[in-house]
Amino acid sequence: MTTPSPTPIQLPAPAPLLTRGGWSAFIVALIVVCAVAPVLNLWVPAGSMFHLSDYAVALLGKIMCYAICALAMDLIWGYTGILSLGHGLFFALGGYVMGMYLMRQIGRDGNYKSDLPDFMVFLDWKELPWHWALSDSFIATLILIVAVPGVIAFVFGYFAFRSRIKGVYFSIITQAMTYAAMLLFFRNETGFGGNNGFTDFKRILGTPIATQNMRMTLFVLTGLSLLGFFLLARWLVRSKFGRVLQAVRDAESRVMFSGYSPLPYKLTIWTISAMMCGVAGALYVPQVGIINPGEMSAANSIEIAVWAAVGGRATLIGPIVGAFIVNGAKSWLTVTAPEFWLYFLGALFIAVTLFLPDGVVGLVKKLKAKMTTTKGAAQ
């Protein structure tokens, strides 16, 4: 009598990166960023109702930088359960690396006609500090934009996660780290411009930075970076790596009992998230024209968490939507009613926490499911 061979286990087929509708929306967003926006800004006359003003380009570019930070927050908070209140540090570090390069690009066009940045001449510095050594190389700048936030996040995360610090204690430590860095960067002797930071940028790669074409180039690069990071995040959370992250979020002790060590998973996503914020900061600085220690304030890091919560955690698209909603409202309210802006932000966060725990995207999904159910019952 022959023993029947065991039936092989059939693993479920991997889900596609995006659905057909998702790819359609992605392509539409790509066309808007790379074709529609440049045409409306560069070729449509300023008097036309379809013209996209330079102010709108700068505003949308800035919000897209914020959206990258919100997406990075979703990876660690929404999918891993790690609430960071210090991601403003990584955003600012990427901005400072880019700012150092832009300051070197000024050359002798500054007020003091010196090879040193103006603030160093004012403080009677005779030479560049050691950490400015590679700031005149664009290639080195691109590497440092991701390396500096990544290394600092890796070192901090290794000791924090190895010590099993989690929950509110981890959030407080990240905020303390950011605050300490802000105080350090405020000091003139550190060589980062002190309270004023870096500003008055002239050119990038030899091209004037304050031109319409350069603004649109930076806008397109920011949009492509946001779309690229969205695909990267989507691939990460739908992979085995992403499933382990969600398991760590839901029951870390069970993950450990199953034979997985949470440390490398948490450390990896933490470092990736910090690098994403560094890229966002580097794209932000040439579009806004300034970087100072204020970008490391506790309020800025808390706002990143607010964007993710408003849009909807663990959805990827939700934090992006939240960043656009909150910062769009901020841009409008700071002009029409500046004294009420902070009250609005606090009320919005409380309302979302109490009535929309899944955020705006979660509400849309619930309404869509309800309409589908009602339509099916009617048929």
Supply database-style keywords.
two-stranded antiparallel ribbon; two-stranded antiparallel sheet; mainly alpha; globular; 4 strands; 379 residues; 13 helices
User: What is the percent of helical residues?
Assistant: 55-70%
Q: How are the strands ordered across the major sheet? A: 1-4
Structural class: mainly alpha
Q: SSE order in H/E notation? A: HHHHHHEEEHHHEHHHH
End-to-end distance, in Å?
56 Å
Strand content range: under 5%
Q: What is the residue-averaged pLDDT?
A: 92
Number of strands: 4
Determine Rg (CA atoms, Å): 23 Å
Describe the structure.
It is a single chain. The protein is 69% helix and 2% strand. It has a two-stranded antiparallel ribbon. It has 13 helices and four strands. With 379 residues, it is mainly alpha-helical. Strand 2 (203-204) and strand 3 form a beta hairpin. The mean pLDDT is 92. The protein is globular. It has helices at residues 20-43, 54-78, 87-106, 118-122, 138-162, 167-186, 212-238, 240-257, 262-288, 298-311, 317-336, 341-355, 359-378; strands spanning 198-199, 203-204, 207-208, 290-291.
